[in-house]
Amino acid sequence: MTVTRSIAFSDSVIRIRFFDTDFSTGALFHEILNLVHVQGEMAGEDVLLMGGVTIGEVHLDGDMVFGPGFNRAYDLESQFAVSRRIVIGQEAFDALRTDRRLISENHTAEEDIAYIRRLVTRSDDGIWFVDYLAAM
Question: Which pTM does this prediction carry?
Answer without folding.
Answer: 0.87
